[in-house]
From TrEMBL:
<dbReference type="InterPro" id="IPR011249">
    <property type="entry name" value="Metalloenz_LuxS/M16"/>
</dbReference>
<dbReference type="InterPro" id="IPR050361">
    <property type="entry name" value="MPP/UQCRC_Complex"/>
</dbReference>
<protein>
    <recommendedName>
        <fullName>Peptidase M16 C-terminal domain-containing protein</fullName>
    </recommendedName>
</protein>
<feature type="region of interest" description="Disordered">
    <location>
        <begin position="1"/>
        <end position="26"/>
    </location>
</feature>
<feature type="domain" description="Peptidase M16 C-terminal">
    <location>
        <begin position="286"/>
        <end position="467"/>
    </location>
</feature>
<dbReference type="GO" id="GO:0046872">
    <property type="term" value="F:metal ion binding"/>
</dbReference>
<dbReference type="Pfam" id="PF05193">
    <property type="entry name" value="Peptidase_M16_C"/>
</dbReference>
<dbReference type="InterPro" id="IPR007863">
    <property type="entry name" value="Peptidase_M16_C"/>
</dbReference>
Length: 555
């Protein structure tokens, strides 16, 4: 709001209309006669005209009021109108757009260098029970967030009870603690606009909490109760099991998810800890005692990492953490690492270079997944393959540009080394949705064979490197994201300076490096193909590819 306009009186105070007196028979008639015979002094006319015109420039009154100088109900004489019009014409006009642009200073071309990226300064300590704690202050908002990671996860679920880790984490949260059972915990958190959540990934169980800074002591205490003294009520277990069973009933409802899931099972093995799915029978057989045994085995302080980020003083938070987790006792035995198969990858001879067809009768859309074993994190080929990944994807990427835009063979398509686990090979995988699967597979193979036989142009490599480096910045987007990375690296043993080594590795990639890595890691003729669609209509065109075709039953 412009101060000059705000200080002006209103148009009503400038024209000063007569106020109607309290009504009576005499005053009403007198007011009517006075209104009809009123003649304004000339100085008031001029003041009104000038003031109203000035207000019109600022868009406060209508142009009619600005020209007339008074309310339209009080018409001035023609001579006065001419004088007022001349006064308005003499007012300064706004400059044109070209004049405004010409007066602007030139755009800057030189900028100071950005500050170097660095790990945030955090406090690290280890409690007497072995719990490793990372504290990172962030006073931008009055909020505190905490995350606890514990080794275990889905891989620690027994082979006959797949899904035990997820159920344990879910019931641990929904059931609350011994002191604050489920509903009491929910009420206490709701009163403080706070939250506590839990879940299980492939390698770890995670529990997290968030609250206002002023409520951190109380919420941290509630969080510690849930971790160290979970109630695990039977009704919450029954509810969680019913939800998982319902999800299993509908796991094949979305055809676009089927090929990627089945491809992982073919490459790793259907019963591998890296690809297995629970069965309804396994979920139904999980008991409360199973949950207790799992949490006792895997949730232990000497195999856990706690990270807290937010608006707090580190010395005070250290005292709160020690008080909250002092009762969490370390078992006498040593932590057990999550189980891994003796050979992460089985023999690929039965699946390499083969096409597996999942029959979805009546389906009008075909979904495809093509893949082969990939690499692990910290592999030297990680840097050039990440650059190649960026060359494949995006609107300017080879897959999108050639297969989708130029040839029109796919509704959507992407491909690359989507995961690089720390302790086993990931996968190279390309997925697409198409109405012409045979033509798409041929075009896709052409793109991959070119990548494995011809060095990419320097310009394309530089563009992909820049895209990878631009994504790197988001690793430092927030303090909480940085702390999550810090505790994750600490849990699985990744050096904390890995992110900086990654940036340096990307910067050094050259076209020859991309070609060499692609030759080592891309084998289009030996890749496994999974196609999900109507088998009757698909078989004739898929035979033109010359690949062995095998039916694949979903289970």
């Amino acid at each position: 709001m412009a101060p000059a306009v705000a200080s002006l009186p209103s148009s009503q105070s400038l024209t000063r209309p007569l106020k109607r007196p309290r009504q009576s028979a005499t005053t009403s008639r007198h007011y009517a006669r006075l209104q009809c015979s009123c003649q304004w002094p000339d100085w008031r006319q001029k003041a009104a005209a000038a003031g109203a015109a000035l207000l019109a420039v600022h868009g406060i009154v209508s142009p009619l009021e600005a020209v007339a100088g008074i309310s339209p109900s009080l018409n001035p004489a023609p001579l006065q109108q001419q004088q007022q019009y001349q006064q308005v014409q003499q007012l300064p006009t706004a400059p044109s757009l070209a004049e405004v642009v010409a007066r602007l200073p030139p755009l800057p071309t030189d900028f100071p260098p950005l500050p170097p990226l660095a790990l945030p300064k955090y406090q690290q300590l280890t409690l007497k029970n072995g719990l490793r704690v990372f504290l990172l202050e962030d006073h931008e908002l009055p909020v505190v967030r905490g995350s606890l990671l514990m080794r275990g996860g889905q891989r620690a679920s027994p082979a006959d009870k797949v899904g035990l880790a997820s159920l344990s984490a879910a019931v641990q949260r929904s059931g609350g603690s011994v002191q604050h059972p489920g509903q009491a915990l929910d009420d206490a958190l709701e009163d403080r606009a706070a939250s506590i959540e839990g879940g299980a990934g492939g390698e770890a169980i995670g529990m997290g909490w968030q609250c206002l800074a002023e409520d951190a002591p109380e919420v941290l205490s509630l969080f510690a109760e849930v971790v160290t003294q979970p109630a695990l009520p039977q009704d919450k277990l029954d509810l969680a099991k019913s939800q998982v069973l319902n999800a299993l009933e509908h796991r094949f409802d979305n055809p676009s998810n089927i090929p990627a899931r089945e491809l992982a099972k073919l490459i790793y093995g259907r019963d591998s800890v890296f690809a297995r799915d629970p069965t309804p029978q396994q979920i139904a057989g999980i008991t409360r005692q199973d949950l207790q045994g799992f949490l006792t085995t895997w949730e232990r302080p000497d195999a856990a990492v706690l990270g807290i980020c937010g608006d707090f003083d580190s010395l005070q938070m250290k005292v709160l953490v020690e008080a909250a987790f002092e009762g969490w006792q370390r078992p006498a035995d040593q932590p057990t690492p999550p189980p891994l198969p003796s050979s992460p990858l089985p023999d690929q001879s039965g699946v390499a270079g083969r096409l597996f067809l999942v029959d979805l009768p009546g389906s009008t859309q075909t979904t495809i997944a093509v893949g082969e074993p990939g690499i692990q994190m910290l592999d030297p080929d990680e840097y050039p393959l990440d650059v190649l990944d960026d060359m494949f994807n995006g609107f300017a990427g080879r897959l999108f540009n050639r297969v989708r835009s130029r040839e029109g063979l796919a509704y959507s398509i992407s491909g690359g080394w989507s995961s690089t686990p720390i302790d086993h090979p990931g996968l190279f995988m390309a997925t697409a949705e198409t109405a012409k699967p045979a033509a798409l597979l041929a075009a896709l193979r052409g793109v991959l064979e070119e990548a494995a036989s011809t060095a990419p142009p320097e310009e394309e490599v530089q563009r992909a490197k820049q895209a990878a480096l631009n994504q790197f910045v988001f690793s430092f987007a927030s303090r909480s994201a940085q702390l999550s990375r810090i505790i994750s690296f600490d849990l699985v043993g990744i050096p904390q300076d890995y992110v900086f080594k990654y940036r340096g590795g990307i910067e050094q990639v050259q076209p020859g490096d991309v070609l060499a890595a692609a030759q080592r890691r891309l084998h289009p003729a030996q890749q496994t193909v999974v196609v999900a669609g109507d088998a009757v209509s698909l078989r004739p065109q898929l035979r033109t590819l010359g690949l062995p075709i095998q039916s694949l039953e979903l289970r």
